[in-house]
Amino acid sequence: MGKIIDQIKEGKILVSDGAWGTFLHAKGLKAGECPELWNITHAEEVMDIAKGYIEAGSDMVETNSFGGSRFKLANYGLEDRVFELNKAGAEISRKAAGNDKYVLGSIGPTGKILMMGDVTSEELYEAFKEQAIALEAGGADAVMIETMTDLEEAIQAIKAAKENTKCEVFCTMTFDKTVNNDFRSMMGVSPTDMVNQIIDAGAELIGANCGNGIKDMVSIVKEIRKNDADIPILIHANAGMPVYQDGHTVFPETPEEMAGVTMELISAGANIVGGCCGTTPEHISKIAEVVRK
Q: Would you state the torsion angle of the CA atoms of residues 55, 57, 61, 64, taken in this order, to the nearest 10 degrees?
């Protein structure tokens, strides 16, 4: 099957998966419950999500391990089960993906803030190392470090995955639109700031996820491309910006609306397109139709 990066170098545009959290809640995950524990207690439901995306046309599927660091798992008293829960998550997605689709081992932020002294760089590195090794053991092809807002945390995650696994290492950050119509992460990082630093740390693919609907992602891709013409770019956009309706958070963009902007995103320079919050297999299926054309 070869590496994801090699497929991109051959000129292929690939399709990733969509939201996981949205789906887990739809399947009964309660507020305050640990999503990663479902890899053991509700493996069938987790498998169902992964299979849903593969059947919708995804070339790759993530793992249910976004909050699988010891820092996040400590909120549930599960910090001693990092290896078990991450490995199980990767095994489920591997089974769903089979031998001809890829598995991206999801690693999200720890929730600890370096500049506040919550944690040291070394502690972050160790936590990410533990998670990355477990995801590789479960069969992940790539480590997908995502939803990062702090460059130093992203860099520690990239180094930990690069130095301790044979996986491809990808990293996306989350940017919000400012009043000046440019984009910044919660910690003030722009897409331009991100590019060289996370590539220098060893990321083989970069991009953005969450925080924006697909239209705003076009501007983010253009900004990345201004700084680097060649680095592979992955975009996981939300299904629009969240709206609060009848006591629920709703993401309003339809599969057709997201698919309608997909070509623009690819023309701007995106190599892999998938979804984040609010996106479903229907969204991915429509995006895949555009990509296959």
A: -50
Q: CATH second-level architecture of 4-292?
A: Alpha-Beta Barrel (3.20)
Helix (H/G/I), strand (E/B), else coil: 65? coil
Q: What stretches of the chain show up as alpha helix (H) in DSSP?
A: 4-9, 21-26, 38-41, 43-56, 70-73, 82-97, 121-137, 151-164, 191-200, 214-227, 255-268, 281-292
Given a cut of 90, is residue 138 above it in pLDDT? Answer: yes
Average pLDDT value over all residues in the chain: 97
* CA–CA distance, 259 with 222 (Å, rounded to integer): 19
In the chain, the N- to C-terminal Cα span, in Å, equals: 22
C-alpha 187/C-alpha 151 separation (Å) is 8
Inform me whether the pLDDT recorded for 105 exceeds 90. Answer: yes
